[in-house]
Amino acid sequence: MEKLNIICVDDQREVLSAVLQDLEPLCFWLNIEDCESASEALDLMDELDSDGEHIALVISDHVMPEKTGVEFLTEISGDPRFTHTKKVLLTGQATHSDTINAINSAGINRYFEKPWGTSELIECVRTLVTEYIFDIGLDYTEWQSDLDQSVLLKKLH
């Protein structure tokens, strides 16, 4: 069975805990990792990649020390190992220009303002992971019942 990883990055532990709690229903078919900085997340991505694991999605806060979420997600976008990795920016403090930069430079797939809706976040993750599976050509059958069925139907037709 292939391992699909989601990495959640936020320097505030209470926000990170809230994201992890909201994504808990997906833990039976996705491995969800948490990091408190961009550098910790990049190290984890290197480790997972060297172990042959898939990084399907990265959810990152924007305002963090060292690197902003946009800088971090832009760096991921420029790494050929993570071409298909989906990216979500989760923030309460991004400016309009930050958001435009995230879309243009980092190629984010989705933007959420804090506070986010749990069901909306779960559906977003399900959709993006489904797209990732098809983008890289994984056999989706072992996760078929867990995937976004509307994306699944589009990809199969």
Automatic annotation (TrEMBL):
It holds the Pfam family Response_reg. SUPFAM superfamilies: CheY-like. The keyword Phosphoprotein applies. The keyword Calcium does not apply. GO terms for biological process: phosphorelay signal transduction system. Keywords: Phosphoprotein. The modification 4-aspartylphosphate is found at residue 61. Residues 5-129 form the Response regulatory domain. InterPro entries: Bact_response_regulator, CheY-like_superfamily, Sig_transdc_resp-reg_receiver. This is Response regulator. It comes from Vibrio ziniensis. The lineage of its organism: Bacteria, Pseudomonadati, Pseudomonadota, Gammaproteobacteria, Vibrionales.
